[in-house]
Write a structure and sequence with these properties.
This is Phospho-2-dehydro-3-deoxyheptonate aldolase. Its EC number is 2.5.1.54. Phosphoenolpyruvate binds at residues 120, 301, 332. Belongs to the class-II DAHP synthase family. One of its GO terms (biological process) is aromatic amino acid family biosynthetic process. There is one protein chain. By secondary structure, this protein is α/β, with parallel strands linked by helices. The chain has a single domain, classed as Aldolase class I (TIM Barrel, Alpha-Beta Barrel). 37% of the residues lie in helices and 14% in strands. It has 12 helices and 15 strands. The chain has helices spanning 36-48, 55-69, 90-111, 156-159, 164-185, 208-229, 250-255, 286-291, 308-318, 338-351, 379-396, 441-459; strands at 74-79, 115-120, 133-136, 139-142, 242-246, 257-258, 267-268, 273-276, 298-302, 327-331, 357-360, 367-369, 375-378, 400-406, 415-416. It has an 8-stranded parallel beta barrel, surrounded by 4 helices. A 3-stranded mixed sheet has the order 12-13-15. Helix 10 packs parallel to helix 11. The longest helix has 22 residues, at 90-111. It is globular, with a radius of gyration of 22 Å. The model is unreliable at 1-6 and 233-237 (pLDDT under 50).
C-alpha cells in the first residue's frame, strides 16, 4: 500500500517545543487535584499503556482532510457532547455508529462525494465549564468536568477530581475503539446491506420513505457495478472511521503523546483528530502551545468573538507552513450572529490564501434554557445556522467542507423541533444528557438530508 504521507507538504518540528512545554503557559479549564502524588502515579501508568490509535491512521486522516479542503471529500463529525463511563455499552456504541453510517449514506448519495467519518467518541470524556464551582442550596462544590475528572453527583466525594479516572477513561476509550473496529472489520458498514443500519425509528418516521428510497437506489447502483464487473465490489464491505475529542485535559493528552518508529515528530495517540474549544484557544495559552507541536490534524472552534486578526495569528501558530490537511476551523456562531460575524473571517483567510478546512458547528451557538430549567436547542435554529453557513461561504468564494454535530443514536428528547416537532413538554420524557442537548437519531438524519438539499439548491443555475 502506498504511503499516504508522500503527498503531504513537508513540515518541520516547531522550535523549542516538547510535549510538556504547555506547562509554562497559562492553562485554563484544568481541574485541581488534591493529591499530587496520586496524579503523578496515574500519569506514570498512562505513559506505559498502549496507544489508542496509530500514526499511520493519523496520517491517512490528514490526507483525507487535505482532500476535503479541495472539495474532494466531505467531513462528517458527530457524537456525544460528553461520553459517560456508564454508557460504554454495545447498544449505545453500535447505535451511535449506525446513525453516523446512515448520515454518511445520505451524504454520499446526495453530495456524490466520499465522506470522512469522524466520531466524537472513544475519548470525549472531558467538558469545559463556565465556572470552576457550582453552588446548590448554599453548598459549593467543584463543577462537573466530565467523567475523566469527576462524577456528576452533587456530593464532595463525587465532585473531587480523581486522577485514577484518567486510567478509566483510557480503558473505556480502548473498549469503544475495539468494538467499533470489530464491527467495521466484520462488515457492519457493508454497503451491500445498508438495511442493517436501520434503527427502530425507520418503520414509523416521517423520513422513512425518503431514506428507504435512498437505500434502494444505492443497492441498485452497487448491483449494477457488480454486474458490469462480473465480481463483487469488495471495497464496499468496510469504511474508514476515525475518532476525535476536545483535548481539554492536557496531562492526559501529554501522557499519550509519543514518538513512533520510522516517523519524525510527536503524535497524540489518544485520538486521530483532537480539537481546541473556544474557551481554551488563547494564543499564549497552554492548549495552543500543546497543539502547535503534535503531528495530528487539529481543529479549532471559533465563535462570534473571534476577530480576523486573532484568527490569522492562530493560524500562523498552528499551521505556519500551510500544511494540507493540518488545520480545520469549526465556526459556531449561532443563528442570530453568523450573518454578521462569519464573513470577515472567511474573507481574511481567503485573501491571505491560507489552506484550511471550514466546518460548521450549528449546535453550540444555539443553546438556550427553558423556563423549567432544561438546557436545549431548537432544531429550527440549528437548521437556520447551517443554511446560512452554506450561503455565506458561497458569497465569500470559500467552501463549507464539513459539519460538526452533537448527536446520539438513542431516542432522546433533548433538542426541540425536527420531524416529530418535539416541544418543551417532551423534554422530560427522555432527557439523558448530563451536559449539552444532542440531536436524536431522527434529527441527525434530517440534518444530513438538509445538507444535501442545500448543496443541490446552491448548485442550481441562476435563471436569467
Amino acid at each position: 500500500m502506498a504511503n499516504p504521507d508522500r503527498t503531504l507538504h513537508p513540515v518541520n518540528l516547531p522550535a523549542d517545543w516538547a510535549p510538556d512545554t504547555w506547562r509554562t503557559h497559562p492553562a485554563t479549564q484544568m481541574p485541581v487535584y488534591p493529591d499530587a502524588a496520586a496524579l503523578q502515579e496515574a500519569l506514570r501508568e498512562l505513559r506505559a499503556l498502549p496507544p489508542l490509535v496509530t500514526s499511520w491512521e493519523i496520517i491517512a486522516l490528514k490526507q483525507h482532510l487535505a482532500e476535503a479542503q479541495e472539495g474532494k471529500r466531505f467531513l462528517l463529525q458527530g457524537g456525544d457532547c460528553a461520553e459517560s463511563f456508564a454508557e460504554c455499552s454495545s447498544d449505545v456504541i453500535s447505535n451511535r455508529l449506525k446513525v453516523l453510517l446512515q448520515m454518511s449514506l445520505v451524504l454520499v448519495h446526495g453530495l456524490r462525494l466520499p465522506v470522512v467519518r469522524v466520531g466524537r467518541f472513544a475519548g470525549q470524556y472531558a467538558k469545559p465549564r463556565s465556572t470552576d464551582d457550582e453552588t446548590r442550596n448554599g453548598v459549593t462544590l467543584p463543577s462537573y468536568r466530565g467523567d475523566i475528572v469527576n462524577a456528576p453527583g452533587f456530593t464532595a466525594e463525587e465532585r473531587t477530581p480523581d486522577p485514577r479516572r484518567m486510567i478509566k477513561a483510557h480503558a473505556r476509550s480502548a473498549m469503544t475503539m475495539n468494538f467499533v473496529r470489530a464491527l467495521i472489520d466484520g462488515g457492519f458498514a457493508d454497503l451491500h446491506h445498508p438495511e442493517y443500519w436501520d434503527l427502530r425509528w425507520v418503520g414509523h418516521s416521517p423520513l422513512a420513505d425518503e431514506y428507504h428510497r435512498m437505500v434502494a437506489s444505492i443497492g441498485d447502483a452497487v448491483r449494477f457495478m457488480e454486474t458490469l464487473s462480473g465480481s463483487q465490489v469488495h471495497n464496499l464491505n468496510r469504511v474508514d472511521f476515525y475518532t476525535a475529542h476536545e483535548a481539554l485535559l492536557l496531562p492526559y493528552e501529554e501522557a499519550q503523546t509519543r514518538q513512533v518508529p520510522r516517523q519524525w515528530g510527536w503524535f497524540n495517540l489518544s485520538t486521530h483528530f483532537p480539537w481546541i474549544g473556544m474557551r481554551t484557544a488563547a494564543l499564549d495559552g497552554a492548549h495552543v502551545e500543546y497543539f502547535r507541536g503534535i503531528r495530528n490534524p487539529v481543529a479549532v472552534k471559533i465563535g462570534p468573538s473571534t476577530t480576523p486578526d486573532a484568527l490569522m495569528k492562530l493560524i500562523d501558530v498552528l499551521n505556519p507552513e500551510d500544511e494540507p490537511g493540518r488545520l480545520t476551523l469549526v465556526h459556531r456562531m449561532g443563528a442570530t450572529q453568523i450573518g454578521s460575524k462569519l464573513p470577515a473571517l472567511l474573507d481574511v483567510v481567503r485573501r491571505e490564501g491560507r489552506r484550511v478546512l471550514w466546518v460548521c458547528d450549528p449546535m453550540h451557538g444555539n443553546t438556550e434554557s427553558t423556563a423549567n430549567g432544561y438546557k436545549t436547542r431548537r432544531f429550527g435554529n440549528i437548521r437556520n445556522e447551517l443554511e446560512q453557513a452554506y450561503e455565506l461561504h458561497a458569497v465569500a468564494g470559500t467552501r463549507l467542507g464539513g459539519v460538526h454535530l452533537e448527536l446520539t443514536g438513542e431516542d432522546v428528547t433533548e433538542c426541540l423541533g425536527g420531524a416529530r416537532e418535539l416541544t418543551e413538554n417532551d423534554l422530560a420524557r427522555a432527557y439523558r444528557s448530563t451536559v449539552d442537548p444532542r440531536l436524536n437519531y431522527e434529527q441527525a438524519l434530517e440534518t444530513a438530508m438538509l445538507i444535501v438539499r442545500k448543496q443541490a439548491q446552491l448548485m442550481q443555475p441562476v435563471q436569467a
